[in-house]
Design goal:
mainly alpha, two-stranded antiparallel sheet
């Protein structure tokens, strides 16, 4: 089924912002220490693979607030996208296909000029 969907601009913008917020949150979490609270490092070689973690200084209050802000925005956007009025116009058998196409629709939207 090669259906095309005329997604409303606000739904496309919401989906694009959701992608951006998730990417920003992932990048932030990768930069932060592995533990929110300060913890000693450890090494465990008793399992099927060795796990080692250095001591973690924990997250600062600002870092915790930034993660919470991004998670809250992610939730708001996820609700906006999934509950958008557009979905009531899509026939139930096509909903999964339409949602999948929306997730990849940002590739067709004009992107910021990288130069």
């Amino acid at each position: 089924m090669a259906a095309t969907y005329d997604f409303p601009s606000d739904l496309l913008a919401g989906q694009e912002e959701l992608h951006q917020v998730r990417a920003e949150l992932l990048a932030l979490l990768k930069r932060l220490p592995w533990s929110v609270e300060p913890l000693d490092g450890f090494s465990d070689d008793r399992g099927w693979r060795q796990v080692e973690r250095p001591a973690s200084p924990g997250w600062t209050a600002d870092e915790q607030a930034e993660v919470e802000k991004l998670r809250q925005r992610e939730r708001e956007l996820a609700v906006f996208v999934t509950c958008h009025r557009f979905w009531s116009e899509v026939a139930p058998p096509e909903t999964v296909d339409a949602r999948a196409r929306l997730k990849h629709a940002q590739g067709t939207a004009p992107a910021a000029n990288p130069s």
